[in-house]
Amino acid sequence: MLAVYFDQPGGPENLYLKEVPKPSPGEGEVLLKVAASALNRADLLQRVGQYAPPPGASSILGLEASGQVAELGPGCQGHWKVGDLAMALLPGGGQAQYVTVHEDLLMPIPEGLTLNQAAAIPEAWITAFQLLHLVGHVQVGDLVLIHAGSSGVGTAAIQLTRKAGAIPLVTAGSPHKLQMAEKLGAAAGFNYREDFSEATLRATNGVGVDLILDCIGGSYWEKNINCLALDGRWVLYGLIGGGDVSGPLLSKLLFKRGSLITSLLRSRDNKYKQTLVKTFTEQILPYFSKDSPQRLLPVLDRVYQATDIQAAHEYMEANKNVGKIVLELPQ
């Protein structure tokens, strides 16, 4: 089978399609014939050698995929049959013509969604769902500040925040991205190139936000604490802005009685992920169906052929995308 590959860490120019052995499903696993996958920041970090896959996971890039069940491994419980369309949450391996995945990490594709749209759901939307509900404990009426509001996770978090009865505020880097975030339901948007902290305080009448979803990290720490409400929760799930902090973070956080919580999804064990996928499938997935009155929709920015993988990485690295970048695999 063909898979996205790189021989050594480095830039997008190192990426190419390579013929590799097709995997075989193990106990309780399904072989998925991949139609589409989607890019995540983790793919860029892995490509440059900064984010190794978890032990036992495929070294091939790709944390989510959609396609058709091609084979069932031994011990499958009968949830799936050959030919079923499905989307998968993966620790790696999605950017290939075939990938193996535990049957409980597959989800049905909601009616009315394309395979490309489905590929944009698992990693981004389940991450946003986990951050808001399991980690951030979002409550009705909460003010939620979502950094990188035009990203895959950000566009999902805006919609899920609204669905939870909370109020999403976002940061992004251009008027176009802020406008798109507001169309998705953001109550207000702030350009991070200016002082988003003071703008957030003005928008909340000086109270600040109850919850921050932060994939930036070090470069935002002081502004985050400044606009965090008393007893607020700051959820850190990425370090795009670096991991170093210089200054009185702890004293300022203590003064706010704030909570700093960190979270990653890829490195979680299968049991945790299976429970998370089950909860997401039951509570959120029905709202993606075309007949849902409060319909949720993945936001797709661009679709690339797998042969154009270098251009896809360059586009994401330039921070041009609003929503997800999808990769179509050769059929």
TrEMBL record:
Single annotated GO MF: NADPH binding
Annotated Enoyl reductase (ER) domain residues: 10-327
UniProt cross-references to InterPro entries, sorted A to Z: ADH-like_C, ADH-like_N, ER, GroES-like_sf, NAD(P)-bd_dom_sf, Quinone_OxRdtase_PIG3
GO BP terms: NADP+ metabolic process
Keywords of this entry: NADP, Oxidoreductase
Pfam families in the record: ADH_N, ADH_zinc_N
PANTHER family: QUINONE OXIDOREDUCTASE PIG3, QUINONE OXIDOREDUCTASE PIG3-RELATED
UniProt-recorded name of the protein: Enoyl reductase (ER) domain-containing protein
Organism per entry: Peromyscus maniculatus bairdii
Lineage of source species: Eukaryota, Metazoa, Chordata, Craniata, Vertebrata
